[in-house]
Amino acid sequence: MYRPCTFGIEEEYLLTDLASGRVLITPSPAVVRRCRDVVGEYFAEEMFCSQIEIASPVFTNLYQARQFFLDYRQRLSASLAEEGVGLYCAASHPNAPWLRQKARPSPHYRQVFDDYQHVARRSLLNGLHIHAGVPPGCDRMQLINRLLYWLPLLLVLSTSSPMWAGQATGYMSYRRVICGEWPHMGLPEALPDWAAYERYRALLQRTGSLATEGDFWWAIRPSRRFPTVELRICDACPVLEDALCLAGLFRHLVEHNLQPHYDPGPLNRELRWVTQENYWRAMRHGRFAEFIGLHDQQPVTALGWLSQLQARWPTDTVDAERSYRHAQHILQQGTSADHQLAVLEQALANGATTAQALHAVTAQVLAQTRDGAATPVTAAGLAIR
């Protein structure tokens, strides 16, 4: 019998002016001090001066994760509100002036911006990263290969970046579109095992393509700092329960694919082709896409795909049961991307200007981030169409 995995969660936020809804260009020293004082050891800087991260301790269950992030989201939001600032936890901001954003002046980020130029400057984006602990001796590349097919479904559940530069992009996760402009940030390379991973890494370092301490930014990767596999495909989730659902599902997948009787078989090239196609469909259409299912490559809806996942690895813990149930709720009632677009359309239909409608979207995400819950305006008119 497998042992339950420990896990950790990293959430990214944009510091946003509560009055205007605009992302701050350069947060004041008072704002930075409040972030550090409230979050303490769990505070982390990100690429932009206007962006921060909360990196959790190690959890053993979703109750611990819920209490931790509710507490820190609410306390930090309350402290920052005294400076007129809020936390924005969707993956993209609808109209942030990204060209005016200031890069973090640390040596590491100076090098990132020097290396990647406009691609780095455009990446004013928030992700949700989930670490699942694995036992010693686990071949993490083999484990990643077993998990790969299901990653686009997890992206569907998290989609929260439908807008960019003041417009609806036509994508439910425009964040992942921008991620595709970076090297080593899409689906992981087709590496059959850990030995192949080390050869690949050594080749890139030997040829100057990867720094000695450099990281891959794949949609899922073996962490270099921790004995974990790290899920990176997901958009940031303003509704905390959505993020917890994803953590629960990912942990459940990892636990069941660690079982010693599981035989991964040879690396399946065709399955990777299917995964790449489902990945694009998830970015573009979210929960309304028609996906390529597990069984005989037959078309399947997102809800049908989730049912296939549950049939393959049934719920066996309270956390897994709650995660499956909430995933069904997301697919029936809408992701953050659906909710944002609904607010935009409703505001425009009510006679708001484009600027006012975009501000309404920002206000909704700020409220959801602060409270950790969906706001009433997001529930209207979101049945599956």
Ends: how far apart? 42 Å
Strand content: 5-15%
How many H/I helical runs?
13
Mean pLDDT comes to 93
Class per helix and strand makeup:
alpha+beta
Number of strands: 11
The biggest beta sheet, please?
A: 7 strands, antiparallel
**Rg value:** 20 Å
Could you list some keywords that capture this structure?
single chain; 385 residues; alpha+beta; seven-stranded antiparallel sheet; two-stranded antiparallel ribbon
Question: How would you briefly describe this protein structure?
Answer:
The chain contains 13 helices and 11 strands. The chain is an alpha+beta fold and 385 residues long.
Describe the structure.
The chain is 46% helix and 11% strand. The protein has helices at residues 29-39, 62-81, 107-122, 140-147, 151-158, 174-179, 194-206, 240-257, 269-285, 302-312, 318-333, 336-349, 354-371; strands at 7-17, 43-45, 51-55, 85-88, 128-133, 163-164, 167-168, 220-222, 228-231, 291-292, 299-300. Strands 1, 2, 3, 4, 5, 8 and 9 form a 7-stranded antiparallel beta sheet that branches. It has a two-stranded antiparallel sheet with strand order 6-7. Strand 2 (43-45) and strand 3 form a beta hairpin. Helix 1 packs antiparallel against helix 2, helix 5 (151-158) packs parallel to helix 9 and helix 10 (302-312) runs antiparallel to helix 11. The radius of gyration is 20 Å and the shape is globular.
